[in-house]
């Protein structure tokens, strides 16, 4: 037979087991923002925020991750905010100019999408890095096209 | 005893080693990526994936075999004439051979340069390189996850009840233990799929089907995993000791020993379920 002390010790062990997830969850509250697709720490120069409604939004480390998540989950975002690589300013994806070039922003994700607030900057980047402006049907977020 | 301790310690150390390799390649995000290094390579690094797969199989096997030996050793210690000594020595043979094989695989894995050599080395390499090979993929459709979660909790719950009543009864028969072992094997299989398909994306809060990421991002979940394995292994150890250590001298002490080993298993399953439930709920 199992001694009563073993059952008591087991109960204490279970209580400790119950406390660990709570402690772990609490200790991760102040973690750095991570990408909602691959979990990488977000570099503010390439940050993309996708809003689905007033209350829910996801942050991604770059355009490629945002596209992967939207396509994978077949979601329809309300607003997509991207970051201008030159100024670091956030702007609506409908106003941004996108370039797909040979320069990779993140080797882990392989992202080659570049975001610019000014058309002149985008054209210069495309010229210098063998890229192309992506507009119309080749826009990275074509579902936002109706109001673009 | 020293060999058992080393075998036990080398299991988590392997994953800590793999985690330490992650920053070595810019394309790699987690241990899953490290396990894929060498795939499709033409150089000696082509052996890395299978060496790592072998190591990931031998580590738990060594812990199980070592634990089985230890439980039989405990039974032997309770006998006046060391009636199980011969069986213990025979048991050491496969354990030792597997340990040597595991050590050789690990030495080879550490020794092989981890540089991939591929046919494509021109300017188009960046375009041809498929970085998605470093990203784990889902095995199930989204609808199957609810069914899987229900099946997993139901299966483990029933096994816990069976373990509890077996321990309370205090008498153990071969058929009963084999039944418990079959239940533990089913739970282990379901648990692996549940870990990849449900627990990992839920705990990581993104559609990433990679339990390796939990080592770095949700480290306390590793304890839940260890407790679950303790549960599975304990049922196996109880079955082994019932089959291998049943001689006239151990007849009196065996039920108590099996009961205690099964108690460890019950504690492991319950602790794991408590942790997983809370982790998913938070």
**Strand line-up in the sheet with most strands of chain A:** 2-1-3-4
Number of strands of chain B: 0
Shape of chain A: elongated
Low-confidence stretches of chain A: none
Helix content of chain A: 25-40%
Name the average pLDDT of chain A.
85
Helix percentage of chain B? over 70%
C-alpha Rg of chain A, in Å?
A: 22 Å
User: Domains counted in the coordinates of chain B: how many?
Assistant: 2
Number of strands of chain A: 7
Overall average pLDDT of chain B: 85
Instruction: Give the strand content of chain A.
Output: 15-25%
Q: Could you tell me how far the N terminus lies from the C terminus of chain B, measured between alpha carbons in angstroms?
A: 40 Å
Query: How widely separated are the two ends of chain A?
Result: 74 Å
Secondary-structure element pattern of chain A, one letter each: HEEHEEEEHE
Succession of helices and strands of chain B: HHHHHHHHHH
Largest sheet of chain B: none
Q: Shape of chain B, please?
A: flat
Q: What structural class do helix, strand and pairing data of chain A support?
A: alpha+beta
Oligomer: heterodimer
